[in-house]
Hints:
Blueprint: H1 11-52, H2 60-67, H3 71-77, H4 81-104, H5 110-122, H6 128-141, H7 157-169, H8 175-196, H9 202-216
Helix pairs in contact: 1-2, 1-4, 1-6, 4-5, 4-6, 5-7, 5-9, 7-8, 8-9
Amino acid sequence: MQNTIPARTGRxxxxxxxxxxxxxxxxxxxxxxxxxxxxxxxxxxxxxMTACGTTSRPRVADIVAAAGLSNDxxxxxxxxxxxxxxxxxxxGTQRLASYLTHQMAKARTPQGQVRRWVEGILSQAGDEDVAxxxxxxxxxxxxxGDGLDSGRPSSTAPLAAIVRGPLAQLGSRDPDLDAALAxxxxxxHLSDLLWRRARPTRAEVDHLAxxxxxxxxxxxxxx
Length: 223
């Protein structure tokens, strides 16, 4: 009987092909299950961190218990608790960015878009439950950074990207830098509000929006 395997095909090459095919097939069938596991871990992590507040940081054991999963399930998706915190920060920022984009689309002028951007970010401190969970994640994220493959997580970069366009329309000479500075200023004020357990006032929103607009609006050079 003729051998169906080429004589010069190395075992490593053959095994790699078979292993890769089986791995792809397994991932295709388990993908939805894994996505559900990740969402359960994220939701459980947020819930446990919110319950702990800023007095203690939860353990991986606390998170998997709340999710009803195993340690194996946790480490299948996250290298450490810091990795989960970073994912929570990214998840929350993406949700906020989507909300901001929707709100800014309602404004007809770049000035109005900047104001809605500021108002949307500060609104995270306006609801007691949202404020508590946001503060808990930010507090836990304070220990994130060392050893993460993706580097130190940032909650400002995606938010800055959204306001870059309006700032450019207003005459910014460096939209990227100005958007980053504006994001740091507004997110920094949000952090202050969260720590003080205070709600943003209309005057604060107006002042920060005017501050961001004025910073990029060209002025006439003195003669």
